[in-house]
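Q: What would this chain look like folded?
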Amino acid sequence: MKKTTWTPLPYKFIGRGQKVEPQIFEQAPQPVREGLKFLGVTGNGIPVYDRFKSHFQDHGFSAEVLQEALSHIYQTASFEKHVVNMGRVVGCTTCVKVEAEDRVVMAVRKRRQGPTPMVMGRQPELCSSVVIILKKVRDEMGEYFILITAFVGEGSEPEPWDRQLAPGSPEHARAVRFWQTHALIYDEEVIDYIIS
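A: My prediction, written as structure tokens:
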């Protein structure tokens, strides 16, 4: 196997990060469940709904796989990322480690606020796990989760422009390191425009 060294991608940040104060859901019920699409139930019996302006459908795996994965999640925290191993191939991941010979462009995907590194000429890789991020909400009917995102993959970090990341925070630094060495496989169907 040929060993290569790779210089991290230059990452240009667009937009501003902002520090988000933790929300205390018991003090501020938010009756937003009405009109949201029901997706399934977690292993600890809490219903999960899709959010408004969702891009979950962009990630291309079935509702059945999502429901099965949700049944393996036992979340009590307000906001949490889960990597669920399904024990079999459930799809292909389009987030790959970048190699020295790869050509990478920065592109803004549809329904996104900032750029994503995208690698040209690579193929999706078979994967047996899904990543699910859930946010706990409470309304007059009780607790439920909003699906922030779900995709076939081993895990990743938010993109550095994500408004939930405060510039200079450990979470932001981790996101920058991840996206300097990883990219999504180029797909013109999901791109709004190319930056570089």
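Residues 38-194 form one domain.
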